[in-house]
Structures are given as structure tokens and as C-alpha cells.
Amino acid sequence: MKKLIDKLREERTLTSEEFAHLLSHYDDEALAYINQQAREVATAHFGQGVYIRGLIEISNYCRNNCNYCGIRKDNWRADRYRLSKEMIWDCCEHGYKLGFRSFVLQGGEDPKRSDNDRQRDGTFGRSLRKSAGDIPNVPSRCLSVKNRRKLTNAIL
Known about the structure:
By secondary structure, this protein is mainly alpha-helical. The protein has helices at about 1-10, 15-25, 30-45, 85-95, 115-130, 145-155, and strands at about 55-60, 105. Helices cover about 50% and strands about 5% of the residues. The protein has a two-stranded parallel ribbon.
């Protein structure tokens, strides 16, 4: 088991069969070892700091119908909303006063929002960045790679 855990740490991947074996045959000793390895890797990458981000759900409208998601388009029970830029700004200001220095702006793939809206969101993101001193996270949950790249480039 230790060999598989060491391989995972060194190569950052295992075959499907190796993952299946690791997940179905571990014991307390293997679990303690993999936790130790994970702590060492995390500490090497992130240090001992704890980073907390403010999460702002800017809209719960979505054109997609993912079965696992509570904001899917066919969920008629969802109480739908869209935050205005002023409301988002107020959330960020309030979060900043509470000590947050990084914010995740996320929402569904809103059918009423165009690529031009997302470009304007990038400009808005730059304003947040200048004010809060950190880059707002680009929502990845429901954006295509192309749209996520456009929004990221607009913010930066």
C-alpha cells in the first residue's frame, strides 16, 4: 500500500486499477500515511496559512439542467434572483470589513447574460481587484472554457 501512496505523491497519478485498489484495501496505517503525505504536500505548496474566500452567488438562473444542481433550469422551486453590480459591490465591501480579501463570484449559466455582459463583468472584476487587492475567482462551474478564458483575460 505504501508503494502506491508513494507513487501517487511522486507521479501525481495512478491507474484506475491502482486507485480502486487503494480505495478498497486501505487500513489505519495506510490512511495515516496518506494523510501525512497530503499534509506535507499541502504545506509545501501553501504553507501553514489558512485562506478564506468570500463566496458571492451573483445569480441562480441557469440554462443548463444538470440533475445534481439545485439551480438547474427545471427546478421550479428555486427562488430566482440576479444581483446587480451595486449589490455585488456592497457584498464585497461588507466582506472586506469582515476580513475577506478574496471573493468568488459564481452563478449559473444565466441565459440572459451575453459574452458582452461577461466582458463588462471583467471590467467590474478589475475594479474589485484594485479595491480589494486580490483577483476575484472566475466561476468555473457553468462557463465554457472559451467564456471562462474571456472573463479571466478581462479581469487581468
